[in-house]
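Morning F.,

Quick status update on the modeling queue. The single chain you submitted on Monday has been processed. Sequence for confirmation:
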Amino acid sequence: MPTSKLKRAARVILVGAPGVGKGTQAERMLKRFPQLSAVSSGDLLRSSVRERTPIGLQAEKTMKSGNLVPDDMILRLILGELKRKSWLPQTTSLTDAFPPTLSPSPDASFILDGFPRTSAQAARLDALVPVNLVVSLYTPPDIIVARIADRWVHAPSGRVYNTGFNKPQVPGKDDVTGEPLVKREDDDEQTWRVRLRKFEETSAPLLEHYDKKGVLWRVEGNSSDEISPKLFGEFEKRFA
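Structure tokens below.
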């Protein structure tokens, strides 16, 4: 895949329903634009728990009691990561009266994954990170459901196959081990239609928030291969 050089810092969020291929697009973006980094709130949280940091211990205690990790905790993790990369002043804190100045360098470009999921979280993030592109990835629900119906996995490794476009070499067998492929328990049509409906309800206010800020861009396609060229083109127009 050819690569492109960025001329200004891109601070990006990808929003898309389960099964739309958000992870695939992020992966392709990172390869196409080597100056982009991935900042994943989930990875930062798991890492802090594993390393027994003060935030990690706090988060672990919260999760063990069956509660959601508070937004402040996630924001502190994101803040810490941006400071670690020297993209934010080391003195920056959540209680600052004014938004901090992020590095304008193209090398300070990133895709933020896993946060925000609600408009309230987005408003909190605005005070910390001025996101300059929010991509809404859209694939019709019927297409996503059909794709899921064709999905098979190798449970021990997590390798995913699809009988429509990514078939195993031997039907029903993992390419590497030859072990049988299985269906995920929640890969049934009814479960997925509920998930997609719920996503639509919760994401609407989030997308509206970013639309009002003038940073929302929507791209539609029936497959990742259809979406990627459109996404690359828009990204290059804005940042390369």
